[in-house]
Amino acid sequence: MKVQVISATDKSKTLGEIIHEAKAYVKNHSVSLSKLVENYLNSLTRTSKMQTTVNPLVESLTGIIPSEYDEKKDYGKFESFFGRKVCNLF
After folding, report:
1. Domain with 38 in it
2. More exposed terminus of the chain, fewer Cβ within 10 Å: N or C?
């Protein structure tokens, strides 16, 4: 079975070619292939955990503004109260 993999450089490689390159890499860097895969998979889960961490301040502000809020309507009120010249400063 031939599996095509698209790498970051847009060069299509077969799974066999990727495994061959990985074996050459581990030989040159004195690490086992299983350890290389383990480290890669750990980095994926670490990255996804880091991306889901939300700052406590942001968390506390989440949901304050209702989804049906019309900022254009409120900006119009702001503009009519302060005048266009002041609003153009923002």
Report:
1. 1-50
2. N
